[in-house]
Every structure is written in C-alpha cells, then in structure tokens.
Specification:
By secondary structure, the chain is an alpha/beta fold. The strands form three sheets. It has a seven-stranded parallel β-sheet, sandwiched between helices. Strands 12-11-10-13-14-15 form a six-stranded parallel β-sheet, sandwiched between helices. Strands 2-4 form a two-stranded parallel ribbon. The two termini are 21 Å apart.
C-alpha cells in the first residue's frame, strides 16, 4: 500500500552482484515495488543470488565498460521522479539531466588507499555537499563523518537493521557433523577485499599455531580460498543465498571480520543473529558498545589473533558470548529501516523536507 503518491524511481548501478551493498539496495528496491512504486534497475551486470522481485523492471545498460557507463550517466535523461545512486561520482554525472539522491552506504574515500584517488573523491564530496543537495546515510556514524568533514546537514539518517526473517538460528545437522567437534570460523571472501580487511584475515589465520589450527575449520563464503595457504582445514561454500548463509552462520561458531572501514556493518549483526560470535575491529561503529563482540583496533593483528584463539580454546567464553550475540542482534530491525528509507525518498522526490 502506497503512502503518498506513486513514484517512478530508478536505481543506477554498474553491477548488481553478491556484496553486502547489493543486498541492501535490492532489499530497498523490492520494498518500494511491493508498496506500489514503479522501480527500475539500470545496470550493466546483473548476476546475483539475492532476491529480485518480479515487480522490478530491469534495464540493461549497453556500454563500453565503466567509462561508457559514466558517459551514459552524463548523456541520458532516465525519466524518473528520482534516481538513487550509492557512488558519489554517479550523483554528480546523473544530476546534469536527472533528479538524483545519493544513498551513502559507506564513505567512498575509504574504498581507496592511493593518495591521489582519495583526494579526488574528497573533491567530489565537497562539490556535492556544497550544492546543498540531500543525501541518505545508512547510519548515524556515516552522517557524523559527512557533517564533521564537509559541514553537510541535509542528510536523512536511517536506523540500521537486519532482516530477522532471513537471519536467525537455523543450524544444519549436516554442517554440524562436518565440524567433528572442531570450531568453525566463517570468512567472507567477496568484494572490497582491502576495505573489509581480507588480507588481514589471511595474515592472522596463517599465523595461528598448530594446536589452535588443528582445533578449527575455516568456512569460506564467496571466492574460493586455497587449502595450501593454511594449516587449518578450509571448506569453500562459494557464493551462497541468504538461506544457505543463515545455515552456515548458525552451524559455525565464530565470524571473523577484521574490517578497515564500514558505513555501518550489517554482516556482523547478521552473524550474531544466527548465534555466531563476531571477532572484528573498531571500524564497526557499534562494536565497542556491544559486549558480545570481541573487538580490536583496525590492523592490530596480535589482538585479532589472541581473540580468535580465546574463542577456539575457551568453550565457556564462546557459549556465553553466543547467547549475548543473539540478544544484541534482536535490537536491530530492518522493517524500521525500510520505512525510514521510503519516507526519505518521498520527501526528496517532493522537493521538501518535513
């Protein structure tokens, strides 16, 4: 049921794959379509395991790579009431012919480690926020970054949440049997490898002593990881649906996520909702305030290793944190997030703020 007028909304993205950001933007698109809005996905690559509602319209953009996609943004009026983008440079290009809102899922500066590229993204942000155009941020943490750095105040801030219909304890007896008494550590190997600290995870796992390595298994979702890299037994599950991910997380023990940067960080909460204890960094804005999480400073390999080892060797610690994790994740509800996103889109499309 539509609240307010029916909107024609476009979502402009080079690819829709299997990353966390893809899942979030698809969930919002599905919800907008389910309540009666016309929603069109404009993409070059569409290859995802996530749910794509039959109500969504798909427009495959035929262009010569990413440069052609940017040129398409400059030269085309997409004929929507509002176009949603989640990469800052797309907002600037599409705004030449379209009404656009920037949906910030992360601080785009942190995608890069090169000084020149980071400076360029900073400049694009300054241009955007100087124009006083609205933005939607996925968390208060991200809003605070933009306000502090650019003085931007016209930001709709969402209350982050997870889909409790998709993530809850649902252990698979077959997966439990595979462990054979060992502890299973889940590692996501897909997209944003630097930003998510994938290289840090490999260093920590490769440094574990033989006794600890013998007591655990590494369950990898996403890109395949070679057994030759570790003493630890590696099981590759490939790219999995949310249903299978739920079963994997529910059957495992530890979610290892040494991220360098997050706009908010839903993956640890989803793992916690399934009963998996998160070992992560203070790049997760809520981590230090969540007693069920084991948290290290970004890049502190010794601390990450110590925390991982403590969960593998201390059954009482693991059990206690598992119970606290499920309770903590219950406080984050994606239904609230979806409603706030719809309100923001309506307000921005209407040209005024309440």
């Amino acid at each position: 049921m539509i609240v307010g007028k029916r909107l024609d909304i476009g979502i402009y993205r080079y690819s829709m794959l299997n990353r966390g950001g893809d899942r979030v933007i698809l969930a919002f698109a599905n919800h907008l379509a389910s309540i009666g809005h016309n929603v069109t996905l404009h993409v070059v690559e569409m290859d995802t395991v996530f749910e794509v509602s039959a109500l969504l319209k798909l427009h495959l953009v035929h262009c010569a790579g990413r440069a052609g996609f940017l040129l398409h943004a400059v030269t085309h009026n997409l004929n929507h009431d509002l176009v949603v983008v989640d990469i800052i440079h797309l907002h600037l290009l599409l705004s030449l012919r379209n009404k656009v809102v920037y949906f910030a899922q992360a601080d785009d500066v942190e995608y890069y480690d090169g000084r020149f590229t980071r400076s360029l993204i900073h400049a694009l942000y300054r241009i955007h926020f100087h124009s006083e155009k609205s933005a939607i941020a996925v968390s208060q943490h991200l809003t605070d970054i933009f306000m502090r750095r650019y003085g931007q105040r016209d930001i709709f801030t969402l209350q982050p949440g997870i889909d409790h219909g998709s993530f809850y304890p649902d252990a698979d007896p077959e997966l439990i049997g595979l462990k054979d008494g060992k502890k299973a550590v889940v590692l996501l190997a897909r997209g944003d490898a630097y930003r998510k600290g994938f290289d840090l995870a490999l260093q920590v796992l490769g440094s574990l002593d033989s006794e600890v390595s013998a007591a655990l298994e590494l369950w990898v979702c996403g890109n395949e990881l070679s057994q030759d890299l570790f003493q630890v037994t590696v099981r590759n599950f490939g790219v999995v649906s949310d249903q299978r991910l739920r079963q994997i997380l529910s059957s495992a023990d530890i979610f290892f996520y040494p991220s360098r940067h997050e706009g908010f960080g839903l993956f640890p909460l989803e793992a916690m909702a399934c009963g998996c204890v998160a070992v992560t960094t203070d790049a997760i804005p809520y981590a230090r305030q969540t007693p069920s999480m084991l948290v290290s400073t970004v890049g502190d390999l010794a601390s990450l290793r110590s925390q991982l080892e403590s969960l593998v060797t201390d059954e009482n610690l693991l059990t206690g944190l598992r119970e606290k994790a499920i309770a903590a994740a219950g406080a984050y509800d994606f239904e609230v997030t979806k409603a706030a996103f719809v309100d923001a889109v309506h307000t921005i499309a209407g040209g005024s703020r309440p």
